[in-house]
Amino acid sequence: MKKLALLLLLVSAGVVLAGDPLALKVPGVKGEVKVAPPDHWTHELKESGPRNPPSLQLYNGEGKEVSLQITALPAPGAVSQGDAEALGRLVEELSSKQYEEGSVEKKTKVEELKVKDGVARYALYTDADLASVEKPEEGQYKKVTTGMIRSGAVLVIFTLLSQDTTSDAYKAAMKFLAESVTTTGTTAAPGGGEPAAPPKKRKLD
Fold first, then answer.
1. Where are the alpha helices (DSSP H) in 15-167?
2. pTM, whole model, 2 decimals?
3. Helix, strand or coil for residue 161?
4. In what order do the strands lie in the sheet with 181-182?
5. What is the largest CA-CA distance in the chain?
6. Which of 33, 54, 130, 146 has a CA 20 to 30 Å removed from the CA of 198?
7. Which pairing describes strands 67-74 and 154-162: parallel, antiparallel, or unpaired?
8. How many whole angstroms separate alpha carbon 84 and alpha carbon 189?
């Protein structure tokens, strides 16, 4: 897992200062996912299509100490509302396949994230290739925090890249996930429609 999850290139026309609440429209779901990014953060919102889930990329300003991507999908039937154990198993299954082998930890430990709306679980990994690098190059991150929020009719998948887990920027990102992602009022659309395509994996070098 060399050079853990390089930054996605910003599309300059789509990058704006965050702060005002945003609404993500999820295919197959009635209602909207509301998100309120931290003030002065920048974001790029990739709108959803008939088969593509909406995705939001966030950075904490020009310094880009952290990079946060969230994607909203219709919730799978295998993880019912409030089923924290099933959600934890899903987080472990998917994140271990993608990150465990190239990590310092070599194992997956699922943690609880207490969220305002729903239940959430996540796992934390350290990039083995960058763990001893004092100052990684721009676009490289030592830590990846990856997890899911199950709420309403929606599953929110998040990937947070950072150099550590103690910085103000990291804490602000985790607080945003815990308090500022709202799915209240979302329900499965009549007929369900076709399921949305799953998000693509973050590119690794």
1. 84-95
2. 0.81
3. strand
4. 22-24, 33-35, 181-182
5. 53
6. 130
7. antiparallel
8. 24
